[in-house]
Design goal:
By secondary structure, the protein is α/β, with parallel strands linked by helices. It has two domains: about 5-250 and about 465-480, Rossmann fold, CATH 3.40.50; about 275-460, Glycogen Phosphorylase B (Rossmann fold, 3-Layer(aba) Sandwich), CATH 3.40.50. Helix content is about 40%, strand content about 20%. It is built from 20 helices and 18 strands. It has a nine-stranded mixed β-sheet with strand order 3-4-5-2-1-6-7-11-12, with helices on both faces. Strands 15-14-13-16-17-18 form a six-stranded parallel β-sheet, with helices on both faces. β9 and β10 form a beta hairpin. α6 (about 145-155) crosses α7 (about 200-210) and α12 (about 310-325) runs parallel beside α13 (about 335-345). The longest helix is centred in the first third of the chain and has 16 residues, at about 110-125. The termini are close together. The relative contact order is 0.10. The model has no long low-confidence stretch (mean pLDDT about 95). The protein binds adenosine-5'-diphosphate (ADP). Adenosine-5'-diphosphate binds near residues 20, 303, 363 and 383.
C-alpha cells in the first residue's frame, strides 16, 4: 500500500501550545501514525510560543494578503513532529492563551484568525506545496472546520476531509457580515451551509461539508445525535450518522509513565506498587495536606468550568470530611469556582488543598500520589485525565458520560468478583450520585486487597495510542477507497 499523506490542521499542539486535550491529541496522533506508514504533518498558527521554539524553520510559501496582512508559511520539525506554521503576525503575534485576550474575553478577530488557518489548510490540501500534497485534510474542532467549506466553494480537485469534534460546545459562531472578509460567498449563509440560528458557525460548516466526521469516543458519537448533548447540532449530526464515528483518544505513554516520570520522587509500576506511597507522601507535603498514609486522597486535575461538574464537588465536600479523606485539586478557569475552591481550602487546612493554576509537573505528581481521581463531568467527549489516572494507579471516579463511559470498567459486584474493575462510575450527574460514588470509593479503599487489584487492573489497561492509531488508519483508507 502507498504511504498515506495527511495534513492535520489544529489550533494547538502539545508540546508547543496547549489549553486542553485537543493539543494532546494533535501532538500524539502523528507520532502514533508513523508506525503505520502515515506521513502526517500539522498546520498550526504561529503564536509567539510556537515561533520561539522552532529551530531552522524554512519559508515555503508567502501570502501578500491573508485576512488583512502578510503571512509566511514555515516548514519545521519539532519533537519528531513535521510542522507547517502559519506565521501571520497581524493574527497570531499575541502571547498567552491562543483564543483569549488577557482579560479573558475572546479575541475580537477570532473569526479572521481561524479562517486564515483554514484557508491555508485548504490551499495545502489543493496542492499548494510541491513537497507535500495530502490525500486527506484532517481538521480539528471549529478552528479548522472551515477547510471543507473553502474546498466546497473553491470547486475543482480537492482532497478528502475529516472533521474531528473534540468538544461540540465550542462552535465558532460569528456574525454573517464577516463572510466577505473571510472570502466566502454570500450563498454560504444558508441553512444547508454554514448559517446557524441567524449567525454562521464554522463547526457547522465543517460538519456539513466534511467527507467524514469523527468524535473522540463512541459514546459521545451517540450522545451528540440527541438534543441533550447535541448543542443545537444534533439534527444535522443525525443526518450525517452514516459518516460519523467515535474513536477514543490515547495518551502518550512515554510522557505518562510512572516507571520513568521525573516529576515523581520514586518510580513505581503495577509490580512495585508499594513505591507509590512515596509519591503520596510527597504530594501531601507539597500541597500542605496532613501527611497520613491512611487518609484517602481524591485528586482533581481540570479546567474549572460548568462542563466539568466541579460545582457538584463543592456541594459534596462534606462527605470527604465525614470519611476522613483529603482533596488535592489543580485547576483554573471560572472565577467563581476558583474563589470557592480557595475558600474550601481556607476552611479545611490540611484536608483540602486547591492549587489554582496550570502546572504540568504537579499534574503528574497528583496522578501518582492521589488514591482516586474525580471526574464528575456533565459531558465529556473523551477525557484524558482518567486515562492518565489509570496508568498511574489512581482509581477514576467518574460520571457515566461520553468517553468516561467507554474507558472505565465500573466496579460492580460482577466486575469486582471477576477481578476486572478499573474504576467507579455514577449516573445521573447529580450531587447525591457523586456523594454515593465517593462513599463507594472510600468503602472500596478500606478493602485493601480489592483496591490493590483495581489499581493493578487500571495500570494494565491499554491507554496508549496503538488502538486509536489503527482505527484512524482504517478510517483514512476507507475514506479513500
Ligand atoms: P479538556 O480538554 O476538556 O480540558 P481533557 O481531560 O480531555 O479535558 O484534557 C485535559 C488535559 O489538560 C489533560 O492532559 C490534563 O492533565 C491537562 N490539564 C487540565 N487542567 C490542568 C491544570 N490546571 N494543570 C495541568 N494540566 C492540566
Amino acid at each position: 500500500m502507498k504511504p498515506l499523506k495527511i495534513l492535520s490542521v489544529a489550533s494547538e499542539l502539545y508540546p508547543l501550545i496547549k489549553t486542553g486535550g485537543l493539543a494532546d491529541v494533535a501532538g500524539a496522533l502523528p507520532l502514533a501514525l508513523q508506525a503505520h506508514d502515515v506521513d502526517m504533518r500539522t498546520l498550526l498558527p504561529g503564536y509567539p510560543a510556537v515561533l520561539a521554539a522552532l529551530k531552522g524553520a524554512q519559508v515555503v510559501h508567502h501570502v501578500r494578503n491573508l485576512c488583512g496582512g502578510k503571512a509566511n508559511l514555515l516548514s519545521a520539525e519539532h519533537a519528531g513532529l513535521k510542522l507547517y506554521v502559519l506565521d501571520a503576525p497581524h493574527l497570531y503575534n499575541r502571547p498567552g492563551n491562543p483564543y483569549l485576550q488577557p482579560d479573558g474575553m475572546d479575541w475580537h478577530d477570532n473569526a479572521l484568525r481561524f479562517a486564515a488557518l483554514a484557508r491555508m489548510g485548504a490551499d495545502i490540501g489543493k496542492g499548494l506545496l510541491n513537497e507535500f500534497s495530502p490525500h486527506i485534510v484532517h481538521c480539528h474542532d471549529w478552528q479548522a472546520a472551515l477547510v471543507p467549506v473553502y474546498l466546497h466553494y473553491d470547486g475543482g480537485k480537492r482532497p478528502k476531509t475529516i472533521v474531528t469534534v473534540h468538544n461540540l460546545a465550542f462552535q465558532g459562531r460569528f456574525r454573517p457580515e464577516i463572510l466577505h472578509d473571510i472570502g466566502l460567498p454570500a450563498e454560504a449563509n444558508r441553512i444547508e451551509a454554514i448559517e446557524y440560528f441567524g449567525d454562521i458557525s464554522y463547526l457547522k460548516g465543517g460538519l456539513q461539508f466534511a467527507d467524514w466526521i469523527t468524535t473522540v469516543s463512541p459514546t459521545y458519537a451517540r450522545e451528540i445525535r440527541e438534543p441533550e448533548a447535541g448543542m443545537g447540532l444534533d439534527g444535522l449530526l443525525r443526518t450525517k450518522q452514516a459518516h460519523l464515528s467515535g474513536i477514543l483518544n490515547g495518551i502518550d505513554t512515554n510522557v505518562w509513565n510512572p516507571a520513568t516520570d521525573p516529576a515523581l520522587p520514586a518510580p513505581f509500576s503495577a509490580k512495585k506498587l508499594s513505591l507509590r506511597a512515596k509519591s503520596k507522601a510527597a504530594l501531601q507535603k507539597r500541597l500542605g495536606l496532613k501527611v497520613d498514609k491512611h487518609a484517602q486522597i481524591f485528586g482533581v486535575i481540570s479546567r474549572l468550568s460548568g462542563q466539568k461538574g466541579l460545582d457538584l464537588l463543592l456541594e459534596a465536600l462534606p462527605v470527604l470530611q465525614d470519611e476522613g479523606a483529603q482533596l488535592a485539586l489543580l485547576g483554573a478557569g471560572d472565577a467563581v469556582l476558583e474563589r470557592e475552591f480557595r475558600a474550601a481550602q481556607a476552611a479545611h487546612p490540611g484536608a483540602i488543598s486547591c492549587v489554582i493554576g496550570y502546572d504540568e509537573e504537579l499534574a503528574h505528581l497528583i496522578q501518582a500520589g492521589c488514591d482516586a481521581l474525580l471526574v464528575p463531568s456533565r459531558f465529556e467527549p473523551c477525557g484524558l485525565t482518567q486515562l492518565c489516572a489509570l496508568r498511574y494507579g489512581a482509581i477514576p471516579v467518574v460520571s457515566r458520560v461520553g468517553g468516561l463511559n467507554d474507558t472505565i470498567i465500573e466496579a460492580n459486584e460482577m466486575a469486582l468478583n471477576a477481578g476486572v474493575a478499573t474504576g467507579i462510575q455514577f449516573s445521573p450527574v447529580t450531587t447525591p450520585q457523586l456523594i454515593e460514588a465517593i462513599r463507594r470509593a472510600t468503602a472500596l479503599y478500606r478493602d485493601a486487597p480489592r483496591w490493590k487489584q483495581m489499581q493493578q487492573n487500571a495500570m494494565r489497561a491499554d491507554v496508549s495510542w496503538d488502538g486509536p492509531a489503527r482505527a484512524y488508519v482504517q478510517l483514512y483508507r476507507q475514506i479513500l477507497s
